[in-house]
Design a protein that fits this description.
about 350 residues, alpha/beta, 7-stranded mixed beta sheet
Length: about 350
């Protein structure tokens, strides 16, 4: 089969790989129908994480179940499934508590399972899925989604659930004011999540016309292009002299975290989901002085999938609009370059 591999800094190739087979009785084999490039994939691509040997890459995909192990009970051959970015068993204490990202038996896409057996990356033609019952979510009544629905289903593997996680961490609720720091796919989905949870004023921070326009389509009432202290001053101006009740940090740098905290009112809440890069300590003195509540981290999108899937299938939300480019699998190197150069918000790959 063909699969995307990362060989080194800015070196993405589509190589031949062995066809996956069932290796344990809790596995499933999924034929990928759509995958995508994540913003977090860009960090090893840019050289921020060392690549010592070529490896499969990709952790967001949907597809059709082709085979199941003897102990898989929740799935059937022919099911259309969504694969969350974090593999999980579904039965260990963290999984039962809804923190599947901390699963005690988690396998790593493009890495290994707990038995040391190889696991395929999501950006390929087929994937062996360990912990199939605890990981995959079947899409009821759908086998051949159109492109629009395919895109929205694909966001449920990561970015829509991650944006929702940020909104929950920031205590978004009806009547609260919201600031979203970050205009990538996660930040845009965070805008949509805040709207879904009833926020009445949503300020998106963006300097890019296309992303700002999509933020407004998702429910942003205002767009702020300023950065740093100027951004906080603009938020205060827009909100009549106060800062935001809820701030969603969706980037992961020291600068974005500083801006998020600067925009949070005393007694407000910060939800953070940006993957941390470099030194990015939370300034405890600021949290102490302003009584800011902080929650977030890596999102257990498997926990949120059922409720978000219901809204996608009903048409209540359409997060698939974050995909502004579709390429075939062989164009994976260009997909990475387009996102790295901000020529695309998010690229869907079709095997």
């Amino acid at each position: 089969m063909r699969a995307t591999m990362i060989h080194g800094q800015r070196d993405i190739r589509v190589d031949n790989r062995p066809e996956p087979t069932l290796l344990t009785d809790t596995d499933a084999i999924v034929r990928v129908t759509a995958a995508c490039v994540c913003g977090s994939d860009l960090w090893p691509y840019r050289g921020f994480r060392e690549i010592t040997a070529p490896r499969p890459i990709g952790h967001e995909f949907i597809g059709m179940v082709q085979a199941i192990g003897a102990r898989v009970t929740s799935l059937a051959v022919g099911d259309l499934v969504v694969a969350p970015w974090a593999n999980s068993c579904g039965t260990c204490p963290p999984c039962r508590d809804g923190v599947q990202v901390a699963c005690e038996h988690r396998a790593v896409w493009g890495g290994e399972d707990e038995n040391g057996l190889p696991v395929d990356g999501g950006q390929g033609e087929s994937v062996r899925v360990p912990n199939a019952d605890g990981t995959l979510v079947a899409v009821p009544g759908v086998t051949e989604p159109d492109e629009a629905l395919t895109k929205s289903l694909l966001t449920l593997s990561d970015v829509m659930g991650t944006g929702h996680h940020a909104a929950l961490g920031a205590r978004v609720a009806p009547g609260r004011t919201v600031v979203v720091v970050g205009d990538g796919a996660v930040g845009l989905c965070a805008v949509l999540a805040a709207k879904r949870l009833g926020a009445t004023r949503i300020i998106a921070m963006s300097r890019h016309a296309d992303r700002a326009a999509l933020a407004k389509k998702f429910g942003a009432t205002d767009v702020v292009a300023e950065r740093g202290d100027a951004a906080a001053a603009k938020v205060r101006e827009l909100l009549g002299g106060v800062l935001a009740d809820s701030v969603l940090e969706c980037v992961g740098t020291a600068e974005s975290m500083g801006q998020a905290l600067a925009c949070t009112r005393p007694g407000g809440a910060l939800g953070f989901v940006g993957v941390p890069h470099g030194e990015n300590p939370l300034p405890v003195s600021v949290l102490f002085a302003k009584n800011i509540s902080v929650a977030g981290g890596a999102a257990s999108t498997r926990e949120y999938l059922p409720e978000l899937l219901t809204d996608v299938l009903s048409g209540a939300i359409n997060p698939g609009l974050v995909f502004d480019a579709v390429m075939n699998l062989e164009q994976a190197p260009e997909a990475y370059a387009a996102m790295d150069e901000r020529r695309a918000i998010k690229v869907m790959l079709r095997p």
